[in-house]
């Protein structure tokens, strides 16, 4: 690459859109053609090819009746020029298979509740014709009651009309939509229509739909301009979703970048949405684009390279979607509400397979755990203070000479014994696996390195079947000079573009010494690409990289490397440096050189033949995607892992990686800004189908104060505020010169351990509060572990995240896209029922208070559950519920008084909620019996599904899900549906509440885990006397137990607890299969 002068490079969004402002594109539509064929091989099935005045074309394809795909390739002249092969982003290999699979999914009787409505016998097709005013053509998606109707073209209902206007060219999509106000939500105001109407739901900018300004040799620089309705609100945007869930006018750069502290390109930190971050997922939603009507849209740009978004920044009336390389390929979808959009989106990018339950536990990681003693000390200290711990994350300190897949027998003697000892204490271990392969130890008997020996045969280095490394071959077209001596690499650092000469002497000096290789000799030689990775300061290693875009490398080489560590007892993988995060002088933008040729990963590959190649800049995100995929497949096929669920926590990839791994959001710091974006980031990623996501609690690096440990106020807020987030890991840089500690228990012994750093008198109480408050919230999380797991299991079915934005749970609350927008950034729900309202500002700035908004129209109870303190303690009495739509100030000041711990993070419970709670154990999977208590709250009718299984086996997975039986994919033989789904329904009938328990799916006996009985707590809002004491009900409530036929069921018991205002019911688990109805005489 030739640095800033080379068109084959990353460009900032400002530069990209400024140049495209004067660019041209097709202005007039000349013709539109379709096919009425049902042949999957016909590229115009459910599609239209649009031909423009200057000869270019656009392919418009319906994916489902309410989802369409638009592809624009300036070089394509016909529909056959557009490939049927999908990118790896999409869950099906071919577009035809995707369409047919979704047709089947929509007709299933057992599809998720948030899936679009479609009767089992129905089908859909398209119609095509000239518009009535003869200004263009119309392609419509039509749903028919049956295939017979579709064949005859009768009884069809138009879902979406795509109008293609000739001059000026424009695409305009319309749909019949329901009014926002209707009888099933609230009373319509006077003068507001309650009738359905056909409305424009999406449209492009006339005469500027596509603009393009290609740059030789391969930069295409295409933008699609979409009309931005004035009242519309936008949210999602993947990892870039930080700072605010709903985005105002801004620019965004999607480009996987090792962006330490989020300051590389613009130097403004985590609150700047323009920063390209580790993970590229250009997916977002549009709400209120059709004011007064129920319609929400979503957009996915499918491109491995740089994607750029101008969200009304340059022009408030449009959203511009840009790509630097390749074609413009985008999916658009329309639904009534956000949960339905999530189902549609995850139906094309996939949903994950079942993850082990323990990943929802509390995890501790540290860069700087360098000995066996340190690991064992961390675990023993957490156990001694009573804080549950499930995962221990060991960084590259674990490796021998920074060789991937190795362990240091000197500092970590008897690795099998270490893992076994920690596993006996309930702690599962993972270690950092990076994609670099050190060439140290190649073909030598002196300290050999088996991985490099398996990766490359120097004597037969051109044979693809024996060489699994990325080779140094460059694309040199368009360079001023192809000489190695004239090459430069580009990166951004602290807001400035910097060019690096790979031949220079300023290469990093690693702990093993200066990397003195000859760049000139290796450049474009066909020998392995010589790179290197920096782990900070002088720590790191030079080496090669596996060619993971080749299937044979993933399945033959990479897969075999995990066996040794997992045979020794490693439980899961921490995938790091994924982009692949090379040191500054080895490549562009801390990744591969942009002009390095890498494999394209076609679906059909011969292991003995090198597949086609493109430049690394064109396929930028594909490498990290395949890294996670290769690891996931490797673990699944290890004999030692047979039948066990596997897990990867990864850093940085692209849309679709969630099928293989969870995501942590990279190297953050101990700052309030990073804590502020934590909630928004996780919620934004959840909208895009990522189940397990989160930040490093407490911050990985030092904060702006350069402190030796995390500020205790910030640390408490982080731990207490994210306690129901999906990923709950404390991780920090503890290397020399960095942080001294970040383990929770260490805050209690600072004065003893570090007397040279005295604590100010006015902060002693704050420091003393860290351990007990964090302990309280970790334990509270563990008491709600069943609720967390239920949402993770449910995600397999409906794609909905564990931690949810209020826009998912309360889609008809108009305030959430108006005056209540700020609350979307710092409030979230566990599933549907528990609302968490963290404090994201220091106590000294806001006095320990925050304003809370409760979603409309439900009422909300102040959170009344507590961690277990004995068999009789099920919670505190319910207070009077607060109306939805209310906003008010809440005092949550940090204090060392244990009675106030439950209020340090404000929480509320939705009326009608059903919440499972268990006893706290030291770790998930503790073999002792742990009974389930079901808390049932008064209010609106509701239901809940609880999923019981062993938490670790693949056999628990439901059989019917598409991720286990996809077209073209082998069915997972381990999925056997070995789980129990317990459905709990609550309905009010007159003055009584009926609670029904039934086993919807019953292929697992959980009695060894949960015992023989369910305990049900039926909460009531009791009146209080003038002194605030509960007034006992007289007469007390009565309870009856009946089966579905109305026959009385013996063996059940009830106890009215006047002291807490609840009735406690105990029923044998064995009675539930046939549906047991508990009738409570008081609502």
From TrEMBL:
Residues 799-915 form the Glycosyl hydrolase family 31 C-terminal domain. The keyword Hydrolase applies. It catalyses: Hydrolysis of terminal, non-reducing (1->4)-linked alpha-D-glucose residues with release of alpha-D-glucose. Gene3D superfamilies: Glycosidases (3.20.20.80), glycosyl hydrolase (family 31) (2.60.40.1760), Golgi alpha-mannosidase II (2.60.40.1180). GO terms for biological process: carbohydrate metabolic process. Residues 107-126 are annotated as: Disordered. Its EC number is 3.2.1.20. Residues 352-790 form the Glycoside hydrolase family 31 TIM barrel domain. It is an enzyme of class 3 (hydrolase). InterPro entries: Gal_mutarotase_sf_dom, GH, Glyco_hydro_31_C, Glyco_hydro_31_TIM, Glyco_hydro_b. Keywords: Glycosidase, Hydrolase. It comes from the Eukaryota. GO terms for molecular function: alpha-1,4-glucosidase activity; carbohydrate binding. Belongs to the glycosyl hydrolase 31 family. This is alpha-glucosidase. It comes from Heterodermia speciosa. The lineage of its organism: Eukaryota, Fungi, Dikarya, Ascomycota, Pezizomycotina.
